Amino acid sequence: METNDCYKTLAKPTKEILFKEKKSKFFSSAYPIVSEDEVKPIIESLRKKHRTANHICFAWQLGVCDVLYRANDDGEPNNSAGMPIYGQIKSFGITNVLVVVARIFGGTKLGVGGLISAYRTAAQLALEEALIVERRVKVLLEIKFDYPVMDKVMRVIKNHNLEIVSQKLEMDCILTLSVPKSKSQKVKKIFNHIHSISIHEKEG
């Protein structure tokens, strides 16, 4: 059975949006990410940009089948910032994304309900600015084979419109192919029927 290997994410970072609520300023922006390692540098760059910000709250989500997410209130009352931001990520049906809202306090307390509403609205405005694109979950297949079967291998690659990510053609041949996840089992079977090929899946 073929799995649905399409997902929605951002094509590029959004421009920063300013939302005001009772003199507090909320600067929101959204970024496409592929790993958690990308989050910290983005947050640190925003802390430098908004030196007067009292709180820089964010939420991110990664993955399609096995979803990871995190929501951070950065000192705001528990669940009043990060989770409302994360709620908008879920509402827009996107993944591999980070949404950040920097708040500069304007002197008037908003209360927990006001904060939830403000952070939710700020996140929504950022995502409404975003260019959302559909992508496919892909796996990397590494195939090793001898020169005599090169023609057969290249024919499979052409017939199934597979993308060659890297190639090493020395004593024997090693190709790394990017294959839609839903096609990967079928492609493996085809290659396994060609004599003198070894194939294994790599981490994407």
From TrEMBL:
Please give the SUPFAM superfamilies that the UniProt record associates with this protein.
Ribosomal protein S5 domain 2-like
The chain positions of domain Impact N-terminal read 22-127
What Gene3D superfamilies does the database record attribute to this sequence?
Answer: Impact, N-terminal domain
**Family, per entry:** Belongs to the IMPACT family.
The organism that produces this protein has a lineage beginning with:
Bacteria, Pseudomonadati, Bacteroidota, Flavobacteriia, Flavobacteriales
Domain of life from the UniProt record: Bacteria
Protein name (Swiss-Prot/TrEMBL): YigZ family protein
- Which InterPro entries did the record assign? Impact (IPR023582), Impact_N (IPR001498), Impact_N_sf (IPR036956), Ribosomal_Su5_D2-typ_SF (IPR020568)
